[in-house]
Each structure stands twice: as structure tokens, then as C-alpha cells.
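Ticket #4471: structure output looks truncated?

Reporter: J.K.
Steps to reproduce: submitted the chain below (290 residues) through the standard prediction queue, then opened the result file.
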Amino acid sequence: MSIAENGYAEAYRFLLGEYEKNPENYGPQTLYFLACLAGGACLPEKALEWLRKAILDNGWWYRPEVLEDDDLASLKYNVEFISLKSVSDNRYADAVSRTKAVFTWERKNADKLFLAVHGNTQNGQIARDDWKPLLKGNTQWQLETIQSAEPDGYGTYRWSYDMLSYIPVAKAIEEIQNEGYGKIVCGGFSAGCDMLLRAIIFAPVRCDILILQSPWIPILQDHAEALVNAVKQKNIGLRILCGSDDEDCLPMATQLYELTNREGIHSEIAVQKAYRHQFPRELFALEDLL
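Returned output as attached by the reporter:
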């Protein structure tokens, strides 16, 4: 994405080169990016080729809105594109009708629990893979995930910033908070952070610590006071982490830290140098944040 800021053609060549090295390692999102970059680089036939590969050859699909991206505008009246979008839209509608939230927890099998919440265009397995390195193999911790009930694209899910999407997260915390864990830590990435904060504000749930990585938290716009009050009343510690180059989320992360710190809440912030909206490659140890 940083390369695209200087030109779509260069970014397209870069991503294409990476894809061609190990195409089996890349999924629907990569092919979508390739299509958009090709479209933005005035290569509509290439854009169409990538969408054909994703939708027809691989059987994938996308949320309807993403195929209306400005980068694909040159295909808007293309007959094949219209057909591909129709196939994708129908698959999306079918997925919406069948998808339910997935909470991996079944029983208590460790002294402490870490609940991980994925971000948009992710899923529960990605959340597990992202957060597992924090535990450093410590068997005192049990890692579980909650996956959204709202499909985003093939194999990925999203959270909406409303009064419904966060409910599976609230129910998951409620289900485990009285199971006798010595400590409960909830970690969210991007939109997952907003869902955790909504659960804390609007549901009778609590945890010991919230770890918010790259927090995209529009909940601050209208409910900052309620959030601060809920975190303070429930005695929840906050650990806020965000990339120094994450232009969208760093202001929110800083605002949350300043609000909570001013109210005497135990909150800490760490700015990850030279990172954008992503998990750091070398992750901190969980015990260092407690």
C-alpha cells in the first residue's frame, strides 16, 4: 500500500512479483488487490483476469461493495465483469444466510485465558496465529478466539460499528468470566478493538486487561465518556499498541490513552516504530504487558 501511494503500476509489479514466487500462499484478498492495482494502473484486462481467476477458477467471492471500488470503475459496464460480480454477490448472499459467530472455547483447561478478536478481512484462525506468539508457549495460558457472524469475503469476516455486531464478543466474555480463571486478557486487532470496547460499555462483562493492537475505534466519537467510566468502574487495565506510520489509528490510540490516563486508569501506550496498520513481526511477550 505504501508503494501504491507513489504509483499503482509500481505497486502492481511489486505485488505480482511476490505472488508469482509462491502463489499458493496468497488468497482472495491478494487477488482482489492485484485486480484493483491493475485497474488503477489502466490495465483493465489484467484486472478482469484476476477477478476471473478468483471468482470462476478458485470459487471465491467478495462483499458486494468492494467490487464497486473506484479502482475497478473502468470495468463497470463490462459484460464479463457484470457477470462475475453477479456470481460473487450471490455467493455472498448465501454465506450471509448461513454464517454464525464461532467461539472456540469449550472448557477451562488452564489457569489464565486470552481471548483474541480478529479485525476486518480476517478470521478466527488469523487472530489465533497473530496472538499466539505472545504466549511464548506458556502453558498457564489458554488461547481462544471469537469469529464474527458477518462475512466479509471468502473465508474472512468483519465487524460493523453498530449495536449488534459486538454482541457475539460480549456473549463470549460473559460465558467465560465466571469459569474461575486467575486472569482474563482480551486482545483485539483493528476493528476487533472496537468490538471489545463496545462489549465493556454496553454489556455486563469485564476482564482484567484489554490489549488493543492498531485500534480502529470509532466508538470514541460518541461514547468516550461512557467508555472511560466503564473501564474505570470495572477496573480494567489498558495496553494500547499502534504503528508509528498508522495514520488512521494512531490518533485514536493516542486519544484513548490520554482520556484514560487522565482519569487515573492504568493504561499504557507503545508506538511501534516504522509500522503501519499491522501486527509487528517481532511480537512482545504477554507477561511484559501485565
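Triage note (M.O.): checked the attachment and the full C-alpha cell line is present. The first strand starts at residue 102 and ends at 103.
Status: closed, working as intended.
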